[in-house]
Amino acid sequence: MPHRLPVSAFHRLLLSQATTRVPDFANQRARLASVVIEVAGSAVLGVRRLNFDVLEFDANGRLDARRYGAQQAARLDSMVSAVLGEPTAPSGVIDATDRFKARGGTWTPDPELRRRI
């Protein structure tokens, strides 16, 4: 069942405040779709960004903000590596740790769900 979560509430979850929790999500993983829409006056100019993340909650419904932050940092590192090139060890092996960590914190909606979002 979809839940709408205001950005301000999500930010409180990220701050890991003991009082900020979502009991419905206790001991669960939840899929998050973040949408950034550009608006001028009252006219919607379009969707500018879509992010699809996986959030993990503890037994009390608190977000594992440390894990989420590590996944976001890994996603940024992967994007930077795509532009600057992957660092290669002397053995010729590429360290793909960040790529796998970032991928574990995301999901891909099917085309119909993406359209509805």
Structure description:
The protein is an alpha+beta fold and 117 residues long. The protein has helices at residues 7-14, 65-84, 97-104, 111-116; strands at residues 29-40, 43-56. Strand 1 (29-40) and strand 2 form a beta hairpin. The protein is globular.
Please write out the topology.
Layout: H1 7-14, E1 29-40, E2 43-56, H2 65-84, H3 97-104, H4 111-116
Antiparallel strand pairs: 1-2
Major sheet strand order: 1-2
User: What sort of overall outline do the alpha carbons produce when their principal axes are compared?
Assistant: globular
Q: Approximately how much helix is present in the residues?
A: 25-40%
Write down the Rg: 17 Å
Number of strands: 2
How many structural domains does the protein architecture include?
Answer: 2
Q: End-to-end distance, in Å?
A: 14 Å
SS class: alpha+beta
**What order do the helices and strands follow?**
HEEHHH
> Quaternary arrangement of the chains shown?
single chain
Would you tell me the overall average pLDDT?
80
Give me the number of helical elements: 4
User: For the report, how would you describe the main beta sheet?
Assistant: 2 strands, antiparallel
Q: Strand-residue fraction?
A: 15-25%
Contiguous uncertain segments of 5+ residues: none
